[in-house]
Please model this.
Amino acid sequence: MLASVLSFAPEQATAVADYCHEHSDGPPDLPKHIEDLWQWTCRSFEDADRMSSLLQGQWMIWMAQWIAPKRVLDVGTYSGFSALAWYEGTKHTQAEIVTLELSEQMIAVAKDVFEKHKVGDRVKIVEGLASDGLSNAEGNFDIIFLDVDKVNYHIYIDIILSKKLLSPRGVILCDNVFARGLTIGKDFNPYLEESMRPFWEESGDALRAFNKGLMEDSRIDVVLLPLFDGVTQIKWSASSLQAE
Model:
């Protein structure tokens, strides 16, 4: 087909997601402890919509198995779902996973989750502002997953690139760059709950500028994919690698 995106009503989108679940290596075959954490988080927190979907968790595992990273930087821990997915996907490489979180509540939750599932051998949680965690990070990472406050994505990417936290052949994955569709236009999601609209409108405005800025940065190559709520993939440009 010539178009890159199919248009679905909410009920159709749910059916499509279910179909994808049934025709992927997981879910429904996602490791049970990861799916259990996802279900528990949905039941326990009103803002659980911040967490990635089950299918996105399987995508993380698949990406990690394919890229075979030695180090993963998970910017935005929340309840630990993404960190567990990265951990599962890097069993063969025994990658170090560094995850950043600001919320004291979610730090406590994630620590309990990591202790329960005995992943402390490779998962390290860094507490505080993402900007501080990135500024203090050392070495580089083969996968960097950015899923925190959208209005500051431009700050985080600048730190990552300036400090060369991304390895020469690594990839940055920026989540939610569609901002529930409001990055493209304020009227692009008539189904969005009105209580959530101000947050996502602000995020959409910021991400619109962020996406434009990425295209003007000669250090990197960028592809924005219509996956989940929009995923931007970033790698070093050939000229950047040659300059090393």
Q: What stands out?
A: The two ends are 40 Å apart (CA to CA). The beta strands are 71-75, 96-101, 123-127, 141-146, 166-175, 220-225, 231-236. The mean pLDDT is 91. The longest strand covers residues 166-175.
